[in-house]
Structure formats: C-alpha cells, structure tokens
Design a protein that fits this description.
It is built from nine helices and 14 strands. By secondary structure, it is an alpha/beta fold. The strands form three sheets. The protein has a six-stranded mixed beta sheet with strand order 1-2-3-4-5-6, covered by helices on one side. The chain has a six-stranded mixed beta sheet with strand order 7-8-9-10-13-14. It has a two-stranded antiparallel ribbon with strand order 11-12. Helix 4 crosses helix 9 and helix 5 runs antiparallel to helix 6. The model has no long low-confidence stretch (mean pLDDT 97). Bound molecules: zinc ion and fe (iii) ion.
Length: 256
C-alpha cells in the first residue's frame, strides 16, 4: 500500500505546520498555513512542491501564509464551506460528508464547529490519520470561541468515533499545560499519570507531543472523558449529560 509521508515542523510561537506528501502522484499539501516562510523552508528541506493547502479554520495562525504560498506555487486552497468568506484564497469549499481526493488518498471531511463556527477536520482512512486543527489537541481541546459546549461535544464525538488507532495531528503544542490541567480533574487515572510524566520528559527534550493516537486520547484526555466516573465525581456532576460535564471541564480549563 502506498504510504502518505508526513512532515511536522514548528511555526510561530506554538503552532505546528504539517506537510503531507503522496510520492506516487507527487502531490503535497500543507495542513493549514500558519506562516509562509516556515512552510517554504519545510518544503525545501523535503524537496517537495506545494500543490494544496487544506485549511481547518480561518484563524490567522492557520491561514496567514495562504496568499503568499498561493502566489508562489499556484496551489489549490481547500477549506471550510461554512466560513469560506474568511479563508484567504479559498478555491474549494468543503463541509460535513464531503470527500476530497489527494493523489491516491481521500480525505473525509467532518464539520467540527465550536472553536470557530465553520471549523472542519480531515480524516484520511487509508493513511489512518486525521487532522483536527484547533478542535482536538493532545490531552486538550480548542477554546469555545464560536460555539457552546453542546456544539463542541458533538464535534468531539465525531472524532471519538474514528478507529482508535487513528493518528491525530493538531494545530498547537499545548500539551504540558493540558497535562497539568488533566491531572486536576482526574488525578486517579493511572494512564494519565504515566502520560503526564512522559509529556514532561518529551518537552524537556524539546520533542513535539503531536501527533497522538485516538486510543491514547480516549484513555487520558479529559475532554473526551466526560463519562469518567472520577471526573463526574470530582465535578459533582454524577449522571449529568455528557455535554454538560464536558462544558464544565472546558470551563475549569479556561479559568485554571
Ligand atoms: Zn484557532
Ligand atoms: Fe490556532
């Protein structure tokens, strides 16, 4: 089976840029474009030519490089239909249930609103990888700028339903702060305790904690675990609706 090559690199202060490359068809996409310079350096390093930008949401730290990269390379910019008017240079608009062909791979698109109202995520089933932008982070989730807890919980539930072995790339390195917070709501979770230590070591060595896998997130990410009896008990929310428990976890992180 042809493999999808993936290259992760730091951008701006705490963003990640990601390039994906299908060598058989010689196509290369940047997942979001935080800044043109860092994306160009990464392309040069790999010897790849940009053909696409796959945008998750309109925020400037995800689209700031769009126009310069498009002018330089003529790449096609693909992004969320529901906020297309805010995505610079968008050519192809996608939403829930759409598919997008990239070389011999196909991205399935989910609407994952909450962080922004039009945010989308891309899942490449054949490559076993998903790009979740600022919806799901390693041990965290995006802030609710343009949606309520119910909306975001519905979005996260779509990601939760992917195969557990799915490899998940997100837009930021926030994992240390996420791990510290996670331990405050679920201190008795042994998998989380072990992971928090691992995260500390990785960050001390300057290593990225992206990507992660859905299986690990299901075990340790409190934003995917509102059904955890320990979390519910710690919040005094036993038996409440999952989106309410999720909302309280999000609330506490915002005020941590
Ligand atoms: Zn954002
Ligand atoms: Fe962001």
């Amino acid at each position: 089976m042809a493999s999808l090559e993936i290259h992760l690199f730091p951008c701006l202060s705490d963003n990640y840029g990601v390039l994906i490359h299908d060598p058989e068809n010689n196509v290369t996409a940047s997942i979001d474009a935080p800044e043109a310079g860092a994306v160009k350096n990464a392309l040069a390093e790999k010897g790849w030519t940009l053909t696409h930008i796959l945008v998750t949401h309109y925020h400037a730290d995800h689209t700031g490089g769009n126009m310069e990269l498009k002018e330089d390379t003529g790449c096609i910019i693909v992004g969320p239909k529901n906020e297309a008017d805010r995505v610079p240079g968008i050519d192809v608009q996608l939403g829930e249930g759409d598919s997008f062909g990239f070389g011999s791979f196909t991205a399935k698109v989910f609407d994952t609103p909450g962080h922004t109202a039009g945010h989308i995520s891309y899942w490449f089933p054949k490559a076993n990888v998903a790009f979740t932008g600022d919806t799901l982070f390693t041990l965290g989730c995006g802030r609710l700028f343009e949606g309520d807890a119910k909306t975001m919980w519905n979005s996260l539930s779509k990601i939760r339903a992917l195969p557990p072995e799915t490899v998940i790339y997100s837009g930021h390195e926030y994992t240390q702060s996420n791990a510290d917070f996670a331990l405050t709501v679920e201190p008795g979770n042994a998998a989380l305790q072990a992971r928090a230590e691992e995260v500390r070591d990785m960050r001390a060595r300057g290593e990225p904690t992206v990507p992660t896998t859905l299986a690990r997130e299901l075990e340790t990410n409190p934003f995917l675990r509102p059904d955890s009896p320990e979390i519910q008990a710690n919040l005094g929310m036993e038996g409440r609706d999952l989106h309410e428990v999720f909302g309280e976890v999000r609330n506490r992180k915002d005020n941590a």
